[in-house]
Design a protein that fits this description.
Bound molecules: adenosine-5'-triphosphate
Distance between the termini: 53 Å
Largest sheet: 6 strands, mixed
Radius of gyration: 20 Å
Strand order of the largest sheet: 6-7-8-3-9-10
Mean pLDDT: 92
Order of helices and strands: EEEHEEEHHHEHEHEEHHH
Length: 265
């Protein structure tokens, strides 16, 4: 892991985090310290526990054991003020279809305590940068997948959060917009913002992350820079490292079985 001056306070600190659904542990003791300016590529197979961890940090899931501290405070202490410093882009952009983009974004801004007029101006300018100026007053119901994703990204940034949780933020974006968002993440991190980036697109995670945390069956299986992970596992790409650490080699055989079943009479 990269060397970090011990006097710098972690933005996020997790100790022995465990979570049980019914009788099954989905998080089995997670320990993690994340520092300002880091872009954490948070990866793992489907069902590994990534969303559960993020939802606990956002205060959306209760019933965990262990300790989660954000900005130095235990999130269980009852003060939800920390949420004002967080931005969140969920995996699926759930927006209010009957609202216009302007109505939705000013509504979200007001929830974060922003002044309506200032928020309107800021949202309009951000949407313009995403080539969405002409639909700012249109209902979200008419938006394409990519337009919804861009609206979601704008809504997560309006209040200038210090910590961003992004779940597949490039989903549905065209190639130009992908370039903007990747550069945006790098520039926000350079300003000291912390980004928790969950994605299954290994090529992007490999390039954008300053540190990669791999979750496997509710536990951290690897934690370090891409170079460190590469050295340790003696593999080439992050995809290779991922496959090795999750013990997955049979993709060709599975694809063959798919094809043979699909082709059955
Ligand atoms: N509300 C719930 N009730 C019961 N089980 C749940 C609930 N939410 C998640 N789980 C289970 O917890 C495990 C971890 O789920 P989680 O959504 O955190 O995985 P993930 O790593 O985000 O997966 P993906 O990459 O598919 O998004 C899964 O086995 C899932 O079925």
């Amino acid at each position: 892991m990269s060397v970090i001056a011990s006097e710098i306070e972690p933005v996020l600190s997790i100790r022995d985090l465990r979570m049980k659904y019914d009788d099954r542990y989905v998080l089995k003791g997670i320990d993690l310290d994340v520092y300002p300016g880091q872009i954490i590529g948070y990866i793992g197979a489907n069902g590994a526990g990534k969303s559960t961890t993020v939802k606990i940090m956002l205060g959306l899931v209760q019933g965990y054991t262990g300790e989660v501290r954000l900005f130095g405070r235990d999130i269980a202490d009852g003060d939800v003020g920390y949420k004002r410093r967080i931005g969140y882009v969920p995996e699926v952009a759930e927006l209010y279809d009957s609202l216009t983009a302007r109505e939705y974004l000013t509504f979200v801004g007001e929830l974060y305590g922003l002044d309506n007029e200032r928020c309107d101006r800021k949202a309009r300018r951000l949407m313009e940068l995403f080539q969405l100026k002409d639909v700012y007053e249109a209902r979200i119901a008419s938006f394409s997948k990519g337009m919804r994703q861009k609206t979601m990204l704008v809504s997560s940034l309006l209040h200038d959060p210090d910590l961003l949780f992004l779940d597949e933020p490039l989903s549905g974006l065209d190639a130009n917009s992908v370039l903007i968002v990747k550069e945006l993440m790098a520039q926000l991190a350079a300003e000291g913002k912390t980004i928790f980036y969950s994605s299954h697109i290994m090529e992007v995670v490999e390039k954008i992350s300053s540190r990669i945390v791999l979750l496997a069956e509710g536990q951290i299986a690897a934690d370090g820079t891409f170079e460190e992970l590469k050295e340790r596992s003696e593999e080439g790409t992050l995809e290779d490292i991922f496959n090795r650490l999750t013990g997955f080699h049979e993709f060709k055989a599975i694809a063959e079985q798919f094809v043979s079943i699909v082709r059955e009479e």
